[in-house]
Amino acid sequence: IFFRSFFSMPPARQRADEHDRLNTLWKAGILDTPPEKEYDDIVQMVSRLSGFPIALVSLVDEHRQWFKAKACEFPDKTDRTVSFCDHVVASREMLVVHDATTHPAFSDNALVLGEPGIRCYIGYPIIPSSTTHCFGSLCCIDTIAHESISENLLENTGALANIVSALIDRNLKASLFVAKISHELRTPLHGILGFARLLKESFRVNNTIGKEENEHVDNIASCANGNLRIVNDILDLAKLQHDKFQLVNTEFDLRSCIESALATAGAIPKAAKLQLGYLMPCELTIQGDSNRLQQILLNLLSNAIKFTEEGLVTLTCQVMKMGDSMQVQFMVEDTGTGISSEDCKHLLKDFGQVGSSIAQRQCGTGLGLVISQHLLKAMGSKMEIESTPGQGSKFFFTLQCQGKIQLPPMVTKEKRALIVHGCRQQIRRVEAHCESLGMKTQAVRSLGVAQMLLRAGSMVRGRRYNCDVVLCEAALFNGPNDRVSQLNISHGPPWVVIGDLPHSLHGVSNVFAVNTSMMQRRLRERLEMVFNPNSTPSRAPPDMADREHPDPTTAQPC
User: Fold this and answer.
1) What is the 3-class SS of 441-477, one letter each residue?
2) Do 138 and 160 meet the contact criterion of CB atoms below 8 Å apart?
3) Which of 305, 316, 329 is nearest to 278 (CA)?
4) What is the tens place of the pLDDT at every residue in 483-524?
5) What CA–CA distance (Å, rounded) separates 54 from 392?
6) Residues 118-121: contacts with CB within 8 Å, 24+ apart?
7) What's this model's pTM, rounded to 2 decimal places?
8) Structure letter (DSSP) for residue 539
9) Residue 276's beta-bridge partner residues?
10) I need a labelling partner for 132 at 20 to 30 A (CA). Which of 120, 252, 394, 448 fits?
11) pLDDT one-digit tens code per residue, 10-36
């Protein structure tokens, strides 16, 4: 520490294009990446060829030299002010120092006077072919001086440095390709979408569009959005494969994240034929990247919808462990075609798709699950699959994160709800929503049973039955068995009808409506209004968009 503070020499004189060099170095996406076998093998080979105890792949950025690979016990980085490799960067030529203690540029260097006691240094420049800039050096270092260095060692070090340059050049070219394709492909697609919206709006204002023309404009937007999704998937995959993807860690409301993904997935046309929903036991605020988690959930939901002809698609979220940090498990389950064990092996490979005839009839690149797997790896997790052909599939993963459970709102806590619904699975979802709000529930599957329970003096298990609100499926009011008059709704507890309000209930006092049971937030807002009419309903945190009308063309199956 003493030597580093008082005896460090100034760095090498920087070139005029240093700013461009640093920008290009960062674009290569090599700095601060994990160890890679190709680079490790090269420094081991240099150490064996030279017999020197230290061999490094050193990259020089603005304030430090960082070591991508090292064949020794050595720090991950040092200050640029003491870097021998900085002189290689400045000259873009090989540097050989036989005895640093007598060299005018290095005799007072902290790494010479102190640890590790550098005496002999050989450094060869790393210059990728896509640029003229030198990023650093492949070097070998000894702690004893050498009067001479063999030509064979210098030639071999140079050849290996060229290999390092080629490896980094591969990253740099990929980065430049991603930047170019991002502009060249996305810009015209956004233009097509913008003109499609303008065209549709113009037709609407001038009242000159018919049903067929409207469908044509929608098809233009749908095709452009489909291509944009494929381009974005390819770009995401390229960034993930080259470690250029950064997660943004923030605190966010997990339910809002889940419901945003469900709103987009629910806008896929095929989703209207399925029972789409989710289960979540409580209100959670967690630390993580909300946008990328939403992307993973949307990919899984879209994929489940894609391969499910009828039945259920359910997202389940549950807390597995509490303590200093929590484990939150996410599972997307469907009743679709299922996947064979052989197909499961290929499903998470790049552009991997299942091989069934059903899969071959579906569109998509097969990138959605692969991108999700890469994102989960960056989050410290992984995707797992359980599936039985003909019965359905489960895709699940667990995140380790900091978080806290929120208390249910006081206005709904301990309230009693009677759930009236014809579908057991939907009953379970509504029950979960109510339980997360601190409510107690009882469920029945017909209006007749509900009528009996609500009749004055009804007894359930030896106790007089009463409830604070009735949550009822709208479809139960349809058909010849309309029971509105018999139910005497206006004189009992308030009713919240789930779905489109039947005509027979229009104008009936004490009746409220919520258009879907899928979103707990909407149900919560309605219940808060029922129990406390003068209050302002709570809303989702502002960092999550309230996607009431998502664009279905942006949510095509993966």
Assistant:
1) EEEECCHHHHHHHHCCCCEECCEECCCCEEEEEHHHH
2) yes
3) 316
4) 555 566 777 788 998 888 877 777 777 888 887 767 888 888
5) 56
6) 118/84, 118/142, 118/143, 119/143, 119/144, 119/145, 119/146, 120/52, 120/144, 120/145, 120/146, 120/149, 121/84, 121/95, 121/96, 121/97
7) 0.61
8) -
9) 313
10) 120
11) 557 778 889 999 988 988 878 888 888
